[in-house]
Design goal:
This protein is α+β, with helices and mostly antiparallel strands. The protein has five helices and eleven strands. 40% of the residues lie in helices and 27% in strands. Helix 3 runs antiparallel to helix 4 and helix 4 packs antiparallel against helix 5. This is DUF3592 domain-containing protein.
Length: 286
């Protein structure tokens, strides 16, 4: 079998997988579409124990209602129940997803409607078809086609995402500085120890802060990357800037937010230039 035969087999297999996936999505038959998605409410927040692990998230009690039966469920996030809850306050709404008819198999989700159409695998199959076509062009025609095949989608992605990311970062900083900060306190430092494949042991420390918003909401949250000297931060007082609409968006280090925005912009520009350069070089070498 020649190169064209392998390409036809590759595209045929993944094309069939994509068509089946898109067909199931249109018919509403994917597991993601058949799952029940409801909003739960945090009824109680428990303070994490100093020195414990951060893997299970902030201990909370959540209530939600099964829309098909009207039955109310009260559950905790002990064990493996989806996404880790890293910011919590009494009354906060949180997404809950579970298979139809099995509310006890619930999973907590940050974005309740993400992936609701079940198009992840079909889209990945289309991506693999594109990769196969680029590889074929690079081998059968000439290798500069690989640069063009890489550079075109990379550049288009950068052109689309860069302005969007800049607007999001600008709105975030504007919201964080829209009102005076509040005082918070590090109420625990969580410790996790792991061993890599070479036998080396590493330890991570995650401070947990508590603060009260101007509206009287008591927030408990992980603060992993923005406090200096995390292992020795227990009991430290911190100044918290937060967004009025969503206290889950906060920072104890406003300067770090500005630095992060500048670094993200610089990274986006460099990535865009790499894509443009790949297209130009590929076109010149053809």
């Amino acid at each position: 079998m020649g190169l064209q035969g392998y390409l036809a087999l590759w595209c045929g297999a993944f094309g069939t997988a994509a068509l089946v996936g898109y067909g199931r999505s249109l018919a509403g038959m994917t597991p993601a579409q058949r799952a029940v998605r409801v909003m739960g409410r945090i009824e109680r927040v428990r303070e994490p124990r100093h020195g414990s692990s951060q893997r299970d998230g902030i201990p909370v009690v959540v209530s939600f209602q099964d829309p098909s039966t009207g039955q109310e469920f009260t559950v905790t996030n002990d064990g493996d129940h989806g996404e880790r809850i890293s910011v919590a306050w009494t009354g906060r709404e949180i997404g809950v997803r579970y298979p139809r008819g099995r509310p006890h198999a619930f999973q907590f989700v940050g974005d309740l409607w993400a992936g609701r159409r079940g198009l992840g695998w079909p889209n990945f199959a289309v991506f693999l078809i594109y990769v196969g076509l680029v590889v074929f062009a690079a081998i059968d025609w000439s290798w500069p086609w690989a640069l063009i095949g890489f550079g075109v989608p990379w550049t288009m992605s950068g052109v689309f995402h860069m302005p969007q990311n800049a607007r999001v970062a600008g709105r975030r900083i504007e919201a964080l500085t829209s009102q005076p900060p509040v005082q918070g306190r590090v109420i625990a430092v969580l410790t996790d120890t792991g061993t890599d494949s070479d036998g080396h042991t590493s330890t991570s420390h995650t401070p947990v802060i508590a603060f009260t918003t101007h509206e009287g909401t008591n927030v408990t949250a992980y603060c992993a990357d923005e406090l200096p000297d995390p292992p020795n931060s227990y009991g430290r007082d911190v100044t918290i800037h937060y967004t009025p609409d969503d206290p889950a968006v906060f920072t104890p280090n406003l300067r770090a937010e500005h630095r992060s925005r500048s670094l993200d912009t610089a990274f986006g520009v460099v990535a865009l230039l790499i894509g443009v350069a790949a297209v130009v070089v590929g076109a010149v070498l053809l």
